[in-house]
Request: fold
Amino acid sequence: MKRRAFTAGLAALPFLGTSLTRAFAQSAAAPLPKSYSGQKIRALASTGAVWESMANISREFTEATGVAVEYVNLSYNEQYQKLILDLTSGAASFDVFNFAYQWKYEIEPYSADLANIATEIPGAPDLALDDYPKRALDIYGRVKDKLVGLPTIGDVTLFVWNKDAYKAAGLDPAVGPKTWDEVAERGVKLVGNGQFGYAMPAGKGIQTTVTWILIFKSMGGEYFNPSGAPTFGSEAGVKTMKFLVEKLAPISPPGNLTWDFPEMFNSLSTGQAAQSMMWPGAFGDLLNPKTSQVHDKVAWSPTPQASLLGGWAMGVNDSSRAKDAAKLYVAWLTSPDIVRRMGLMAGAPARISALKDPELVKQAPNRPAVLAGLQGDVAEYPPIKEAEQIHIMIYDEVNAAVAKIKTPEQAASDLQGKVESFMRRRGYLKT
Reply:
């Protein structure tokens, strides 16, 4: 994707807030110090409306402090590669950076500790850490005792069902399933007349891994044992593969061996599938009559038994030549009022206050379910810096099992072998 730069004060998009919220924000920002006036902060982020709005609202930080903020927006893979190269080389081309939390172990050695910004930077907003769900804050931003990031996007898996399809199958349309076994049981009743019971992705893509993680967590699975050895082929790992192959695959549409997120969404939004896991970011289209045939027929809740945390946080480069100004900016950008206003634009808040805010809930009615998911039992991606490589191993083996190239038992065993071999090569395992 083509690189796009957004500079505070010169952003291409118009400011999206109302005059009232802008005036309120200026009042809230008034106490910010001008100690760093004339400095410049470069921010690395992903692409999309959320990040463009973030760049836009940062103009107000520039007006209040005299610190220029320039955003560089890259695709997910480009951003990851650019960030790791910048941090490990010491180039310090970026002062602040948004990161997917599964990167945090890799970036931690190069990230500033943000825990004491309020005392280190006179005039900085209080971090109000108790306004985040504790488990979510820990996953997004902490590595051991170090706070390497503050949440900028709150994201968690939700479960969606078609109320009309539930009624037709004799199911209560007001109540979602509480377990994955119940998802499968309901799915069997929902199959018929061209309709399927679940939209399961089984392609070689991240949503297949997401599905595996949710089921693995529900089976009591843990990625590693207390000594750090991988347990992907444990009893829970075998049960997970069997559940995907024997329970979900038979009630899912044909062709799902190539599916990732777009196909999941299309299957649900056209009424082909009556149940699916869904990310909150899709709800704008799911509830829009122009893009969804089921816009007025769906209900939702947190995913059964546990929710997988997605989302992003913002960190500060410890080698930044404008580190104090960068810390001030991150504290301001993630402060409760700015988070609320970002939510009214294109944001996905991680703060409790924003997810409960009546105006934000009216705008995005799935927010209470997002908060419930963040505050419930939360699953996370494998907690090592090479999580992305393990994701590939998972979806490769799930794909082979669902395609019946391998038995579930063989796929689980092969996944275990791949992870073990990889961890030996990387020095995690000595034998």
